[in-house]
Amino acid sequence: MNHHRHDVLPYLDALREHLVRHDVPSPVSVECTNWREPIAVHLYEITLSDLASALLLWTKSLDGVTVTAKRMRHDQSVHLTVVGRVASGVPLHVWGGVRFERPLFPDLPTGVEQDVELSTLHRWKHPGQGVAA
C-alpha cells in the first residue's frame, strides 16, 4: 500500500514556509486536504474592520488574489474569503466570519457568494469612511 499517494505534507510545508516568510495574521485553525482546495486558513477576528485588515495583509502576500463574501444560510454571519497562491503555487483560502449587518451587506442574499473588490476591503478596514456597496 502506498501511504504517500494522498500526502498532505507538501501543502502543510508550503503553508509553514509562507507563514515564516510573511508577517500575516496567524490562523486560529487550518484545514488541509489533498484535493481541490488543499489549504483553508481560518482567521478569528471579531469585527469587520479587524477581519478586513487581516485579509488585506494576506492579499499582499499571495499571488492571483480574489475576494468573495457569502452570507451563510443557517446563521446571521458572512464569510469573507481571500483565495490566492503561495510562492510555490499551492492554492490557499484564507477566511473569517463576521455578523451579518444589512447596512454593510445590502445586496448580499442568503447562500450566494459574491465577488468583493479590494477597495471594498479597504473601506471596511476604515469604518465611517463610507459604506460598501
TrEMBL record:
Name of the protein this chain belongs to: Uncharacterized protein
Which species does this protein come from? Amycolatopsis acidiphila
